[in-house]
Every structure is written in C-alpha cells, then in structure tokens.
Amino acid sequence: MKGLLVDYLEEAAGELAEKKERLRELNRQYREIYDKQIKEEIEIVRREINKKRAEVVETIYENLDEMKHLKKYFPELVKVFEEDDSIGDILWKK
C-alpha cells in the first residue's frame, strides 16, 4: 500500500460497497430465477468480499501506528469509517 491509510480505507470502503451491492442484486436475481450460473457468481463475489476484508485487516495491522494516530488525533474521522456499512465492522473490532 502506498499513500495514507485513510485513502486506502476510503477506497476499500467503496470497493466493498460495490461488491455488496452486486451480491444483493445477484441474490435478488437468484430468488427469481434459481439459476446455477447465478449461484456460482454469488459464490465468486462472496469470495472477493472476504478476500478484500482480509486485505483491509492486514493493511490495518501493517499500518497500526498510523491507525493509532488516527484514533488519537482524528477520532471523528475514525468514527465516520466505523459507521460505514462496508468497513465499519472491521474497524470496530480493531
């Protein structure tokens, strides 16, 4: 990761939000059609989401000092990230 942790978290939140929206859409389609191909695509998107979440956790651990400084000096910013549906639960645990 190059750049600031904040930039990375912002980008990751956007990516996860897109993937979760895609997953919701696929689930809706699957409920209507019950197609095996849609089910397989659902599993692919789930794996991508889990992979990205693991990447976010790893990046936070790699930049733990920066995360501590963010929490200390910019608690409002961290609060905004924690309230985000995409990465909030990841940050809340850390």
Q: Can you lay out the helices and strands and say which pair or pack?
A:
Elements: H1 5-33, H2 36-62, H3 64-73, H4 75-83, H5 88-93
Helix pairs in contact: 1-2, 2-3, 3-4
Sketch the major β-sheet: none
Q: Which percent band covers the strand fraction?
A: under 5%
Q: Based on DSSP secondary structure assignment, what is the total number of beta strands?
A: 0
Which structural class is indicated by helix and strand composition? Answer: mainly alpha
Q: What is Rg?
A: 16 Å
Query: What shape does the CA trace take?
Result: elongated
Q: What letter string, H or E per element, gives the SSE order?
A: HHHHH
- What oligomeric assembly is this protein in? single chain
Instruction: Calculate the mean pLDDT score and round it.
Output: 91
The helix content, as a percent range, equals over 70%
Number of domains: 1
Ranges where pLDDT stays below 50 over 5 or more residues in a row are none
Distance between the termini: 19 Å
Q: What is the count of DSSP helices, taking H or I runs of 4+ residues?
A: 5
Mind explaining what this structure looks like?
The protein is an all-alpha fold. It has one domain. Helices cover 86% and strands 0% of the residues. It has five helices and no strands. It has helices at 5-33, 36-62, 64-73, 75-83, 88-93. Helix 1 runs antiparallel to helix 2 (36-62) and helix 2 (36-62) packs across helix 3 (64-73). It is elongated, with a radius of gyration of 16 Å. The model has no long low-confidence stretch (mean pLDDT 91).
